[in-house]
């Protein structure tokens, strides 16, 4: 399937879904359109709200706050996870000692941690960064550990036979082997970084997309709630595309897998 065909089909799916939404909220095909519009608004109202936000410029500051929180959560969480993941994978005894503690920390509900982070770091950006960090870190950490452990033993043995040092093994064998796992986790963790920022804003903040959604919800502005969610979704897709470009650059050596049409 060509890229143009794929993009056309993706856009077509969105058009069909929006058309169904419009018909359901303005006609009697499914039920009472007034009730449906009350709970789900209409695509026209949502689009109008998004347009008003961007036309007035009021959303740019909120987007910047959420972007800053998300990027900090993503970078700090991913870097810490990569470093510790490689360390634990290369030190099996150390990993075995701390394994139950890491799994126990991962099992802690993040929503419960949000008020604690707010108490520790205040209502500024760092409480949101801390929440996003906890969501990003474990996703990347477990993938890095698994990626290092999945290194081809034959290639590893050949490298040692050629006299590679531990640093050379790390650079030329372990790191390339784990990169596919790392980027797979990064695509997932992007959404979680944004979720952490937005949930933190929703629970207590004065700016950000979560703040906009919380304000709209408090005024029963369903169009505003859906507008915030659509902007958030577009926001995540744009960041994910940026990570995809970096992945293609760093993994240019990886053979391309062509899906069947």
Describe this structure in words.
By secondary structure, the chain is mainly alpha-helical. The chain is 83% helix and 0% strand. The protein has two domains: 1-40; 43-250, MetI-like fold. It has helices spanning 3-26, 33-40, 43-56, 58-90, 92-106, 110-121, 125-149, 153-161, 166-203, 209-218, 222-250. The chain is globular. The model has no long low-confidence stretch (mean pLDDT 80).
Q: How is the secondary structure organized here?
A:
Elements: H1 3-26, H2 33-40, H3 43-56, H4 58-90, H5 92-106, H6 110-121, H7 125-149, H8 153-161, H9 166-203, H10 209-218, H11 222-250
Helix pairs in contact: 3-11, 4-5, 4-7, 4-9, 4-10, 6-7, 7-9, 9-10, 9-11, 10-11
């Amino acid at each position: 399937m060509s890229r143009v065909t794929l993009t056309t089909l993706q856009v077509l799916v969105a058009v069909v879904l929006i058309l169904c939404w419009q018909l359901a909220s303005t006609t009697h095909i499914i039920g009472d359109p007034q009730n449906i519009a009350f709970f789900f608004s209409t695509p026209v109202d949502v689009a109008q709200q998004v347009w008003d936000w961007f036309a007035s410029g009021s959303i740019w500051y909120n987007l910047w706050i959420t972007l800053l929180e998300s990027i900090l959560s993503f970078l700090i969480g991913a870097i810490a996870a990569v470093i510790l993941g490689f360390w634990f994978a290369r030190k099996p005894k150390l990993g075995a000692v701390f394994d139950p503690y890491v799994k126990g920390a991962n099992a802690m509900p993040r929503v419960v941690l949000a008020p604690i982070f707010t108490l520790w770091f205040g209502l500024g950006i760092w409480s949101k960064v801390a929440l996003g960090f906890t969501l990003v870190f474990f996703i990347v950490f477990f993938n890095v550990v698994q990626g290092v452990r999945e290194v081809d033993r034959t290639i590893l043995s050949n490298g040692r036979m050629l006299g590679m040092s531990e640093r050379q093994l790390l650079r030329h064998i372990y790191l390339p082997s784990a990169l596919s796992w790392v980027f797979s986790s990064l695509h997932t963790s992007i959404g979680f970084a944004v979720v952490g920022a937005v949930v933190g804003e929703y629970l207590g903040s004065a700016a950000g997309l979560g703040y906009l959604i919380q304000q709209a919800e408090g005024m029963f502005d369903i169009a505003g709630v859906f507008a915030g969610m659509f902007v958030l979704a577009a926001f995540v897709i744009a960041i994910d595309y940026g990570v995809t470009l970096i992945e293609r650059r760093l993994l240019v050596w990886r053979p391309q897998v062509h899906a069947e049409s």
